[in-house]
Specification:
The longest helix has 17 residues, at about 120-135. The chain is built from 4 helices and 8 strands, in the order βαβαββαβαβββ. With about 180 residues, the chain is an alpha+beta fold. The chain has helices spanning about 10-20, 45-55, 85-95, 120-135; strands at about 1-5, 30-35, 60-70, 75-80, 110-115, 145, 150-155, 160-165.
């Protein structure tokens, strides 16, 4: 997957909600997904080369978050939709979904910040109602700067490892081992 980590108050709120909703997922960092998880058509090295080649010419940009929504009945996932500049993230997704990063995705891509993916629709409905209330009370800045993408690999169920990061418009630094 390719994500933009969200470290300011919006990210803190999402991480708090994750801890309250399904405690087993509290460790996951808040993020906006640019490329959903996928099987790579080749090696991670080829994927990183594609990433480096494509991101050097994309300038950082800001997006604004809208309302809490859900992907029910497709999946029991609760998320915050990206509204302002969503087309910029969609364009970035489309630009990166080629070569070593290409994957035929099951569903159309929609820019969003996942709050939680629950086990059942009923659990997701409960999480949705709680998340809507908390989001309505949130008074902080609802904008996110898309500037540094992190290439991650799922090593075990809900356990992700950062492989590399790349700052938009600048190319890729050395791979990360965290």
């Amino acid at each position: 997957a390719m994500v933009e980590s969200v470290r300011h108050p919006v990210g803190e709120l999402v991480e708090q909600l994750r801890g309250e909703l399904p405690p087993e997922l509290a460790h996951l960092a808040a993020h906006v997904t640019v490329l959903p998880p996928r099987r790579l058509p080749g090696s991670e090295v080829a994927a990183l080369e594609t990433l480096e080649e494509l991101t050097g010419h994309v300038e950082p940009f800001e997006v604004n978050l809208g309302e809490v929504e859900t992907f029910i009945p497709v999946t029991p996932t609760v998320f915050i939709r990206v509204v302002h500049a969503a087309s910029r993230i969609r364009d970035l997704h489309d630009k990166l979904n080629i070569g070593g990063l290409h994957f035929e995705e099951e569903w159309p891509y929609m820019p969003h910040m996942t709050i939680v993916k629950m086990g059942t629709e009923d659990q997701a409905q409960t999480a949705y109602r709680m998340s809507r209330r908390r989001w309505a009370q949130f008074k902080g800045d609802r904008s996110i700067r898309i500037e540094e993408l992190v290439f991650v690999r799922e090593e075990a169920q809900n356990r992700w490892k950062d492989l590399a990061s790349v700052r938009l418009g600048r190319g890729m630094p050395a791979a990360k081992n965290r």
